[in-house]
Amino acid sequence: MNPIDEIAIRAGVSTATVSRTFRAPEKLRKETATRILQIADQLNYSPTPRRSRRKSNNHAGPTAAGNIGFLFFCEHPREIYSRDAFYGLILHGAQTQAKALGLTVEADIAERYTAPRVLPAMVAKRSVGGLLLVGAAPTHVLGFFSSAAPHIVYVDHLDPSGERDGVLSDGIGGAMAIMSYLGSLGHRRIAFVCPVSEAVTFRERYQGYQLYCIENDIPLDPHQIVMAIGYDDARARVEELITSKNAPTAIFAANDLTASWVLHACHARSINVPTQLSVAGFDDVDLARHIWPPLTTLHVDIEGIGQQAVLRLYEKMTLPSSNSAGLTPVEIRVQGSVVIRQSTCPPPKPS
């Protein structure tokens, strides 16, 4: 059966509606478009990219060998320069390493949840010899770019097909390190707060949290796990959690921005951090040092992620095509280390 037909049957819509979802989702009800995209992901279906209307060119441009593309999947155009600055640091690391190798980075953004109607100019014009796909996106969006350049490396995410290289932080190991530190202080009732996301990084940090609990005979209490949709939802649910009868003595947040949301909830409920509740994050962006109290977190060499991604892409670009095609895809994990600040201390003694 044609994939479009199967998606239409499962979603209870026409094939025209399925096609419109990939071409112009803004013209559909959000619920309908979301249902169709979820089914497409389940079937591992992605639409065939439509090339630019410019005349096709089967050969890379004259400067392609010296250029690499940096394509960032975002919800908002300014996200790369947002206050947590995570992806801005990755971009800076990529630019620094590229310059050292005599390369130029051409950066662009793409919507995280919607496949574009045409390929970005740097891809359509074949002005880059390799492409960094940066950040998380659904399968149908990633599939659109799966053959967008001769060489591709995923950054802060992994290729769902397992056919491309990926460079990201060590989420499981880092989460285990933070949890081990909280455990060393005497905490056993530790909650986990994380944004709802398709990001591999968040999923692995949750796995690290679970693994630590299992290895240390700590019950996995669903009431101590908060998967939040944005700031308002996170703050409301954390406020409910920290004022409950079975409130945690520590909270591990999946990144520093989420940890700042936890701190806002604590301040709103007059919960003292750290004497009443310890809070720890992940990444060690600038925000972690400037919020109050300064945040204990897992330091990640964020610029190093960008640097490692460029090095791997450069390796693939400079090998003869026959050798490059035979390279086994690798996952490069950038290790982290716990940075102890004022947001954590031993749990309060039972009254």
Overview of this structure, please?
This protein has about 350 residues and is α/β, with parallel strands linked by helices. It has 3 domains: about 40 residues, 434 Repressor (Amino-terminal Domain) (Orthogonal Bundle); about 140 residues, Response regulator (Rossmann fold); about 130 residues, 3-Layer(aba) Sandwich (Rossmann fold). Strand 1, helix 4 and strand 2 form a beta-alpha-beta unit.
Question: Keywords, please?
Answer:
13 helices; 434 Repressor (Amino-terminal Domain); alpha/beta; Rossmann fold; single chain; 12 strands; 351 residues; six-stranded parallel sheet; 17% strand; four-stranded parallel sheet
How can the largest sheet be summarized? 6 strands, parallel
Range of strand content: 15-25%
The main sheet orders its strands as 2-1-3-4-5-11
| Structural class label | alpha/beta
Elements, N to C (H/E): HHHEHEHEHEEHEHEHEHEHEHHEE
Q: For the record, give the distance between the C-alpha atoms at the N and C termini, rounded to a whole number.
A: 66 Å
Q: In the residues, how many domains can be counted?
A: 3
Radius of gyration from CA coordinates: 22 Å
